[in-house]
Structure formats: structure tokens, C-alpha cells
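hey
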């Protein structure tokens, strides 16, 4: 099912749903599991990243709206992650 713009916008703005997503991710991170979140909207990535950062979750954003420098830093962080390092979350489109 392809989401229409209005439906997609509604999902991005659904605070209760976003809290549920973030809490589920936090639980995984607390269990030392890294997580990848895929979404169609960069605005959703930015919103979720802010919510997760506020909860102390390490986040790497990868989408077309970030600078080349930030993208390279995120990729380097992923490449340099050693076994046993702190779990992190990748948010991408």
C-alpha cells in the first residue's frame, strides 16, 4: 500500500506512535543491539533523531538533506565501530 502525502504526514506527526518507536529502539539499544530505521521522509528522520538524542541514544542520520561532511562522519563512525562498542541507531531514507 502506497501512502499518500497526507497519510505519510500524519504518521510523521503522530507523537504517540513516534514515542512507541523510540521506546522500542531504546529497549534494543539497552540490550546492546544496533538498529537501522528506514523511512521515506527526512523530516521523520530528523524528528526521531532529536527524540532519541534526548534519551541518550547514539544516532547516525543518513539522508539527502545532510552535508557531505556529516554523511562522511556518520559513515566513518559506522566503519570504525568495533565489536563490543556502544550500540547505535542508523536512521536513513
Amino acid at each position: 500500500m502506497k501512502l499518500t502525502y497526507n497519510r505519510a504526514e500524519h504518521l510523521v506527526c503522530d507523537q504517540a506512535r513516534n514515542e512507541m518507536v523510540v521506546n522500542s529502539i531504546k529497549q534494543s539499544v539497552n540490550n546492546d543491539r544496533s538498529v537501522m530505521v528506514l523511512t521515506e521522509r527526512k523530516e521523520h528522520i530528523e524528528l526521531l533523531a532529536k527524540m532519541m538524542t534526548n534519551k541518550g541514544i547514539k544516532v547516525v542520520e543518513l539522508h539527502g538533506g545532510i552535508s557531505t561532511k556529516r554523511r562522511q562522519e556518520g559513515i566513518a563512525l559506522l566503519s570504525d565501530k568495533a565489536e563490543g562498542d556502544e550500540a547505535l541507531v542508523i536512521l536513513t531514507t
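The chain has one domain: 5-92. The mean pLDDT is 85.
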